[in-house]
Amino acid sequence: MKRKVLVGSVGATAIAFILAMAMQAQTQQLPSYRAPRFPGTQNPDLNGIWQAVNSANWDLEPHAAGPSPFPALLGAIGAEPAGQGVVEGGKIPYQPWAAAKKKENFEKRLTRPTTHELNDATGDPEAKCYLPGVPRATYIGLPFQIIEASKQILLSYEFASATRIVYMDRKPKAPVDSWMGWSIGSWDGDTLVVDVTAQNDKTWFDQVGNFHSDALHVVERYTPLTQYHLMYEATIEDPKVFTRPWKISMPLYRRMEPNIQPLEFKCVEFSEEFLYGHLVDKLSK
Amino acid sequence: MRHRFLAPRSALTPVAVAALVLLAQMTVAAQQAATGGTQKTSAPASSSFVTPRTAWGDPDLEGVYTFATLTPFQRPAAQAGKDRLTPEEQKALEEQLKKKQEENIATNEHFSYNAIWFASDQGRPTGRTSIIVDPEDGRLPPLTERGEKLRAEMRAQAATKRIGKDVLVDTWVDLSIYNRCIARPMPRVSQEYNQGAEILQTPGFVTIFYESMHDVRVIPVGGRPHLDSSIRQWNGDSRGRWEGDTLVVDWTNFSDEETSSGSAPFDGFPQGNMHVTERFRRMDANTLDYLVTVEDPTIWTRPFTFDIPWRGDDPTYRGPDDLFEYACHEGNYRMVEDVITAAQAVRAAHSGNR
Fold first, then answer.
1. Total of domains in chain A
2. What is the pTM of this model?
3. Domain that holds residue A238
């Protein structure tokens, strides 16, 4: 019996140690894991289909479970699960006006865009199947694929067929702002660092209306923890909206199903009734 | 076996025949052995050209390309019986196209899409009179009975959406799949703009990223079965294999939804039964040959094959940063609002309700 207790306590210590290491891995890579190299290069090979498993797309901040927006129609389907949050320190450091704007975003998140002015001013871009921006594309709930070739990386998301080229060997300048921004990559040890600028001000961070301006600057870090996990961190800076830079982090999990492949989620056709239904629905006029 | 339906190409010019004879034997032999039939190649690779290899030994097709070309998909009636232009005709065509482009700039012919959209993204004529290389007349093959019936139905449906010269969009569903920004039907043949694509390779996969619609095809190479036939996708399901230096892609599982006439390369027929075989082969440091056979025995009486050069030396697509974000749906609200309200106004005026 004594022996068993001893083993148990060693096990607990080991678990505590692993947990501590996992926490530490948010800022630095586990020393015990070295990713395989991409053939013909010294770069770690991050190829694969990855997915976040959390409720960050509903709310980046800590939150209790809540009902769906239409419980009379959907019952418990579409209700939001609770989450401990992915923001370091828990809270997003909004400037006062921006905190009020976030609240308004939430209240009007499912307002039917019956005019183009309303469409520009209100509503969760996810409901409209608009390109999700960075970092939301990472945790919007669908898998994405890292296609790491010898000179360049392509990130391909199931959601809305969104894509980003990550320029690795040079640093071209963004010609103009865009929905998915302009991504310049580099390696910091085994960590892929992606500097994302030139995003427009139309995307959100989540469904509760957390938002940014066109001054958004995101620095992402993708660190291989094991063959099956990446640690994803994003430092978010936007002096027009926040009082200081802030950071989110979450593990990404490799999709392991045999023959897994990205499938189409071309959600435009699922968004059209929401966007344009009022035009053909005489009762709404 | 399907390639048995392909007739040998008898209209090759003497120069092309000579080049074919000189072509490195292995590639042709391997292709023909694997397909069991006469494999067409329109532009044989230079005999001195050696396809580079990736670090893991696959033929290297990587690069940024454009499939833009001014050669028409089907051969115009005026050039019946002739599959290539003479150098003089080619020069005249280029001059004529340049003039037309200048006129477009002056007249703003395409309305909201003026010549700025088209000026730098039109590729070059191939020297051939059609993109289709089989059947030999350079035209789509005759339709089957079902094909004719579908075409008649699509035309009848379109007629209900027309009053005089006005094409009426009563609901967003009346717009083509392309105008709705859902998909640009595959396979891609020359289109008006944003005809860039990038090929990236990783061990076991070839990825094609199309600028238009920011579509990505991650093509597993070797062995993996197709998706279940219940899973239909706008961009289908692709499986690749290497035959010598050629990437051969078997492409199925297309959506059977109407694509709407004019938005698809082959008259907008539903693509649910379509089976496509693509062949990508590097011709030289800057050019891929893209040879594609399309079969749908429920629509066409025989398969057809087309051939487009993917050029890596076009000034419009010098590198990956020339493939810009194609945010289409994101800017479509006003267009849909305008065409639907316009249709309502036309219908109201026509029925005397105002």
1. 1
2. 0.86
3. 42-66+86-284
